[in-house]
Structure formats: C-alpha cells, structure tokens
Amino acid sequence: MYLKKTKQKSGRIYLSIVDTYRDKEKGYARTVTVEKVGYLDELEKDYDDPMAHFKERVEQLKEKKAEKVAPITLSFNQDDTLSVGQSNRKNFGYMILSQIYHELQIDKVLTSKQRPSKIDYNVNDIMKLLVFSRSLYPGSKKKTFENKEKFFDRHDYSLDDVYRSLSFFYKHSSLLQTKINDRIKSVYNRKTDLVYYDVTNYYFETDIHDELRKKGGVSKEHRPNPIVQMGGLFMDTKGIPITFKLFSGNTNDCLTFRPGFGRYIKSII
C-alpha cells in the first residue's frame, strides 16, 4: 500500500492511496484504489505538508490491514475462575457454515465491492455474523450483535455499523444472488429443471410509508401496518433459493411472477 501521485494532462498532481493484490484467477498482480485523496495544490491549502500527512495515513491503513490478517491466538490460565453469571462459551461448530460461506465466495464479492467505497468497517465480518447467527441463534440484529462473542471472528464494528451495512448489502443484492447461484451450480451441481415459486410479505410496526413500505396489500398476518412484498422467490428441489426480489407492499402477488421469472432465467443461463 502506498501514496500514488498521478500527473494529469493539465499538469496538476492527483493523490490517491492504492494497494496491490494478486488476482488468482488471472495470475498476476493488480492495483486497487483504497482512498481518493485529491489534488495536491488544493490539499496544500489545508495541510502544511500534505505528502507527509497522507503517508502517515497510509501507515495507519497498513496497520489496520495487518490486524485483519493476523492469526487469532487463545490463551488461558488454569487458575482463572469464572464470575457468577459470566459465560465465555464459544461456538466452534459454525466452522462448517464458514466453509460453505467461503466456498460460495461471498467474502470475495463483498471485499471487492467495499474496496472503492469509503466504508471504514469490514462488511464481510458483519455479513458472516448475520449469516451464522441467523442459522444458529435466530434473533434481531441487536440480539445478534450482543451475541457476537460466541464466534471467534473479529468484531471491531458497532451496532450502528451493522445497521448501516444493510444498505450496502441491499445495493449489491442482485450481484450476490448471481454469484452465489453460479457457485452453487459449479460446486454443488444444482439442478434447475424443476423449481418452486413462493410469495410472502413482511409488516412494519409503524405508520411511515416509503417506496417499499405501503398499505393496500393483503398482509399474511392480517395486520393493518405497512408491508413489503417479497416476490420472485424461486427455489430448487432442495429448497435452496435461486433468486428473489422485493416489491412495494401494495403489489399484487401475481404481478411479482414475471419480473422474478426474468431474473430466474438470467440466473440459470
């Protein structure tokens, strides 16, 4: 990782922080922009020595990167005792889920999409927590965050970061579905000659309406609250989802089929 100086046609110098990584698929090293800094002449108005300042920023980012890849070690003292009500239990069985998670290459998709963003927490760590907890300890996002110490992964993010990451996941939802489906087909030999389709909806305990949350649709739980339609859920014969899409709450169930079917066709080609 280093501070890159790029001379523009105008003669101005543009600074950016870049990193290198090896593309295993293509077999050679590539560079990626970690942070866009700005034009040197403009930065000199705000910093006495912008080059020194952002070189120090590079060192900070290097330290963070090193912390993420450093091995996790556990140590204990045989004379230590637990306080009443204290629990240090860890779940080790989730490593099976972790293997599947990495076989589907969800981590690669999230990492590649986070690189050009300005997000300063690890979205992949949050996704792992949400996925593993949903499988083993279903609960709210808040409860999931409170139980994070059950897992061995790093948790250097806040509850607010967990909520913020949901927008990032939604933004890249279509790409994730496509990549996961491709991996399931190649690794687990998914069969799609027969598929199942389902529709459901979710209610929100609020009167606030927006683009998705709307009244007017038929709530599966017969509630008057705003709802969101989850349509286009196509599953294979093993019950593993292929693709899905969210619709506004006042969308009729039958109107979700054709858009979802189009996504399904694209996903299996």
TrEMBL record:
Lineage: Bacteria, Bacillati, Bacillota, Bacilli, Bacillales
Domain of life of the source: Bacteria
The name this protein goes by in its record: Mobile element protein
